[in-house]
Amino acid sequence: MSNKDRQFRPVAVPDVRVGGFWGKWQDAVCDATAEILLDRCVEAGMLQALDVRRANPGIVIPIQPWGGTTQMFWDSDLAKSIETIAYSLYRKPNPQLEARADDIIDMYERLQDKDGYVNSWFQRVQPDRRWTNLRDHHELYCAGHLIEAAVAYFQATGKRKLLDVMCRFADYMIGKFGHGEGQIAGYCGHQEIELALVKLARVTGEKKYLELSKFFIDERGQEPHFFTEEAIRDGRSPKDYIQKTYEYSQSHEPVRRQKKVVGHAVRAMYMYSGMADLATEYRDDTLTTALETLWDDLTTKQMYVTGGIGPSAKNEGFTDYYDLPNDTAYAETCASVALVFWASRMLGRGPNRRFADIMEQALYNGALTGLSLTGKTFFYDNPLESTGKHHRWKWHNCPCCPPNIARLVASVGAYMYGVAADEIAVHLYGESTARLELGGSNVTLRQVTNYPWDGKVSIRLELKEPRQFALSLRIPEWAEGASLSVNGGRIDLGAVMLDGYARIEREWTDGAEVSLDLPLTLRPQYANPKVRQDAGRVALMRGPLVYCAEEVDNGGDLSAIVVPEHLPETKTSIMRDLEDAVAVELPVEREDTQNWGEALYRSKPAARHEAKLRLVPYHLWDNRAPGEMLVWLQAEKRGA
Amino acid sequence: MSNKDRQFRPVAVPDVRVGGFWGKWQDAVCDATAEILLDRCVEAGMLQALDVRRANPGIVIPIQPWGGTTQMFWDSDLAKSIETIAYSLYRKPNPQLEARADDIIDMYERLQDKDGYVNSWFQRVQPDRRWTNLRDHHELYCAGHLIEAAVAYFQATGKRKLLDVMCRFADYMIGKFGHGEGQIAGYCGHQEIELALVKLARVTGEKKYLELSKFFIDERGQEPHFFTEEAIRDGRSPKDYIQKTYEYSQSHEPVRRQKKVVGHAVRAMYMYSGMADLATEYRDDTLTTALETLWDDLTTKQMYVTGGIGPSAKNEGFTDYYDLPNDTAYAETCASVALVFWASRMLGRGPNRRFADIMEQALYNGALTGLSLTGKTFFYDNPLESTGKHHRWKWHNCPCCPPNIARLVASVGAYMYGVAADEIAVHLYGESTARLELGGSNVTLRQVTNYPWDGKVSIRLELKEPRQFALSLRIPEWAEGASLSVNGGRIDLGAVMLDGYARIEREWTDGAEVSLDLPLTLRPQYANPKVRQDAGRVALMRGPLVYCAEEVDNGGDLSAIVVPEHLPETKTSIMRDLEDAVAVELPVEREDTQNWGEALYRSKPAARHEAKLRLVPYHLWDNRAPGEMLVWLQAEKRGA
After folding, report:
1. What's one Pfam family here (chains A, B) (predicted)?
2. How many C-beta atoms surround the C-beta of residue A401 within 10 A?
3. Under 8 Å CB-to-CB from B544, ≥6 apart: which residues?
4. CB atoms A320 and B606 under 8 Å
5. B358 contacts in A (CB within 8 Å)?
6. Chain B CB contacts of A313 below 8 Å
7. Which of A299, A559, A636 sits opposite B529 (nearest CB)?
8. Which of A75, A195, A220 is closest to A137 using CA atoms?
């Protein structure tokens, strides 16, 4: 059976309740982040634009050289904050916070034009500029985030007000966009609406929203180029485009012809997410084929070991193959979050660890590092090396990342499972209870585990009556020596593996127990030697987690640490000041910086001494004392 | 005898005629660069501002955020070009080029105000802004370069017109600057006038110019701060200073209190050069002490192995200690040229290889790389690693570097020798004939050598009658196993070394032969392990030359090359396509990029195969095919 014949439904967030590792993170979002997001959005003045009860928004903001201002997408910040609140309310009811969200939703309802249009900036600050510059103005992007918020808020609270507002807006768009007389045959410079419309279609059952999403995807990159014609219509010279190339927004050619991951990283990931959704919904192999090529392009030539992507701050995106600078890595939190989105959607046509392993890697490292343990501060860019000057922000001029990582954390349960007609896939492990609907009847899966600190996972199934179906459990590629048993009977993994999942098809009965053991040993990761920045260096991973060295544990001059090729025995320890995270200690050598002498250069290499190295999970760095941090450590090299 | 009791006079450029290595470079300047500089200056429109016969310069140029425009220092570009032409005329008469220089000098004479003021920008384009913004406007900087040009042109041609113009300007300055009523108690934001006034004093014998130079040096960094008061007077807010700190122009504190090399690299080097000149002229130990501290600060914590300095493009200058990124190195050609200036002036109080070794290192590497073999193209910034995108320019928006390296190359003979009352110092080796005046009588030194390709140097002395004096020959610190003989008799180096020079004090007679052998073996250079960018890497030098790997010789992926700790036997070869430069070949290992596999990361390091590495001198890179370049190669590391 080919995977591509199956369609895996996404799991609704309220259907999975997490505990353990992710439970703590979700508590931080519920207890701190959700409210902070709203506070900071309000402090930034977002409600001034939104609230029509204020006669004059009183906002005079200079347009930047790229053709807009970050304030133009305030709606997206509010939307992602509402989405985060929605998920948090499901976990922890909070009437006060809910009331604040309801107030904002009321404002959107009041703001909405009779024709269905909603955008606080282009109704209140620049009303004459509506739909004049799709390339730069983020109008459909904002709409997309509001749709995502509407779906989440509806699923979490049952309240449909925002969902109705956004359905009206989407209906308006259906009339506005197309090839007919007076319609706009265009698409947004910042993809997002595409995946949002799929969510809207799924929650409403309305295929028309899928069709609009498909229209945006199919139109993108066609010639004559929409952005060129639009610029001319708007009196702008297309040659003055500050990004210089439509690769920036992945509109340089039709999406099915794209083979290389280019441009702005978040835009790329959001587009691929929308494409993957459509590939699943329409069983569109032309999209799937394009996506698989792009997937390999990204993950075999352009991705940090953390699942960080987009090395350059200049275009917030991609540069050359194998160009992965560590100290200046942009690797925006949003981009790793969006890689998780894409990866999860690549599982829509069947479980495959080619996608799920990377989803997990990006989630635990490049994405999660964006949030502090307290849930109160945030990373925007995520270098893999710091001299001690990179720290978590309270807020950011372009506050896209804080609500993005918050909504991912708050909804992470939905990424753990996939459900098809006759199959449940477990993509991610973690303490959780999932109440899933499988072909009309309910199946509850209770995962008991201390994953990712420990590799032992026990899953108990609860179902009213015995049922024949397949349970597919991801066996990560890194999990050498993994073992699996069902009701105490050992499973021969070799016999049941399909695309990296142990697929156990049988009649399942209530109380069935699945036990999985994924050995977590510290393992070295070497980069393809074409990655010049990692030459002679090694990164260390344990399970899905990238580990790093911090100055607070190891002193400064971390580049003087040399890790032996054959890893010595390691010790793990529980870090009380990192909420019981598992640290790893191992003996290493260290170049002697004390007795080097005066000269900057000399003909003898540095002497070495034995030292102890303590590694902590990368996503937890800069949660204690400020200081140096390093992922790629010097690796011992031995001649042939 | 302490070195500091002696004063070493600079040697005038026409007194030394070079051949061999430097002769070829000077021929390139004479045959190509000198004229190109003038052509490009004219094309840029510089004469429009300068030539008062044009009623209207017709220049409307927007002021940049830093408070000026690069066009404000057009005079300095013309001046350095004239200086280069002056040196080139001495080597190769060129009536056409001389006539063009004379024309420009005539324009300066016509431009000069009755009061003596000369500046094409502030007389012709912004006459109302004269002396209103010394911090940013480069007025005294331009004056300094014109003085240097005037001195050079007078020494090379005997023509005094520009010298007279600049003496009048300097006399005007003496009245304009000071603490008296109506005087300006300030100094230039870009140092240069200080060292130029010393040159003027030496050529005219007028101590008043020294005094003005000393005034500028002594005033710098005093409180209340001149730049702050000037900004307020000029209606500018001192807080808006784009460079944020007066460290940028080394005016953050009085110069004698400065201990750390900070800010804009060229400004720093020019200031230290002026300070060193004054230290020599006034035998000012307070200046010398400050300079020695700054010298160590620069050379033991902030200098590339190439003698490149100033790693950051942001401030064209210094950042943190041990921060020496290779691929993004700014290391402006001008900064290494200026380091040569400073180093040579540190020899004014006696020969010392602590300064002369670095002078040679910066000259042959960080500076000389700025000029192509043809003399027709230029490097501005000088990374030590390139992915193949860094290439020589035909010209630059801020064309400071081309004439700077050109004038240094064309005058390099003057840096080879130093003369005191009873001592001749040979700082640099190279085929040359120097006609020196030693306490009233003439001594000619004829160096016969193929240095730096070969370490054998023979020096023949010519003098009318026998004379007692010291001949001091630098024995570079790297020259392990150096040997020296005089008239065939071996000298015991251990017995004659003073501050890194073999000091041979005796009665010298006509025809005396000095033979020096400086073994040139390829030697590894390791950086202090605090330099994170060089951790696990090695650079290779031969004599004063840094070598590098280029793609044209070695294929791409240069970071996959691994150099063994114990260097195997090397072969040298003559590179016909690099004007007979000496290349070095040695067996190395190379990580296998072909059979790595699909994954970007894996748990096994790359396999290695044996390979041959060809290294060429760094200063010659990008003279053949474009491609990757690397100085710091992966170094084999072995456990303790």
Report:
1. Glyco_hydro127M
2. 26
3. B360, B361, B363, B364, B365, B452, B476, B478
4. no
5. none
6. none
7. A559
8. A75
Which of A387, A529, A639 has the CB atom closest to B564's CB atom?
Answer: A639
A400 counts as catalytic: yes
Q: Do B535 and A559 touch (CB under 8 A)?
A: yes
Q: Give B289-344 as a DSSP string.
A: HHHHHHHHHHHHHSB-TTS-B--BTTTTB--STT---SSS----HHHHHHHHHHHH
pLDDT at A2 over 80: no
> What angle is formed at CA B428 by the lines to CA B424 and CA B431, rounded to 5 degrees?
100
Evaluate if residue B56 carries a pLDDT over 90: no
Average pLDDT of every residue of chain A: 96
> Model confidence over B226-279: pLDDT tens digits?
999 999 999 999 999 999 999 999 999 999 999 999 999 999 999 999 999 999
Which residues share a beta bridge with B446?
B433, B460
Do A598 and B300 make contact, defined as CB atoms within 8 angstroms?
A: yes
pLDDT over threshold 70, residue B155: yes
What is the structure's pLDDT at A640? 40
Helical (H) or strand (E) element with A112? none
pLDDT at A38 over 90: yes
- pTM metric for this prediction: 0.95
Summarised one tens digit per residue, pLDDT across range A199-247 is: 999 999 999 999 999 999 999 999 999 999 999 999 999 999 999 999 9
Provide the number of CB pairs (under 8 Å) joining chain A to chain B: 158
Give the span between the Cα atoms of B475 and B483, in whole angstroms: 9
Given a contact cutoff of 8 angstroms between Cβ atoms, the answer to whether B50 and B107 are in contact is: yes
* A527 closest CB neighbour out of B592, B601, B609: B601
Per residue in A340-379, pLDDT (tens digit) is 999 999 999 999 999 999 999 999 999 999 999 999 999 9
Of B537, B601, B604, B632, which to mutate for an interface test with A (greatest number of A Cβ within 10 Å)? B601
* DSSP structural state of residue B7: -
C-alpha neighbours within 13 Å on the C-beta side of residue B502: 21
Chain B residues within an 8 Å CB radius of A535? 559-560, 591, 634
Please state, in angstroms and rounded to a whole number, the distance separating the CA atoms of residues B575 and B190: 41
| C-alpha distances out from residue B275 to B209, B211, B270, B281, B342, Å | 14, 12, 9, 10, 9
Q: What is the nearest CA distance from A554 to chain B, expressed in angstroms?
A: 15
Main-chain phi, psi angles of B501, to 5 degrees: -115, 140
| Structural element, H or E, at residue A148 | helix A139-157
Nearest to A380 by CA among A361, A398, A406, A360: A398
In this predicted structure, the answer to whether residue A61 has a pLDDT above a threshold of 80 is: no
Mean pLDDT of all residues in A524-541: 98
Say how far apart CA A251 and CA A275 lie, in whole Å.
14
Catalytic residue among A192, A219, A316, A360: A316
Asked if the peptide bond before residue B224 counts as cis, ω within 30 degrees of 0, the response is: yes
Confidence of residue A56 (pLDDT cuts 50, 70, 90): confident
Kindly indicate the confidence band of residue B187, based on its pLDDT and cuts at 50, 70 and 90.
very high
Mean pLDDT of B80-91: 97
Q: Which residue carries 């085929």 as its tokens?
A: B431
- CA-CA distance, B492 to B510, in Å (whole number)? 23
The answer to whether B600 contacts A299, with C-beta atoms less than 8 Å apart, is: yes
- Please tell me whether residue B502 adopts helix, strand or coil conformation: strand
HEC readout, A554-567: HCCCHHHEEECCCC
* Average pLDDT of every residue of chain B: 96
Domains of chain B, with CATH numbers?
A: 13-415 (1.50.10), 417-517 (2.60.420), 522-635 (no CATH)
Inter-chain residue contact A640 with B610, CB threshold 8 Å? yes
Residue whose entry in the numeric block shows the structure tokens 């967030």: A13
Q: At what angle do helices A333-346 and A265-282 cross, to 10 degrees?
A: 10
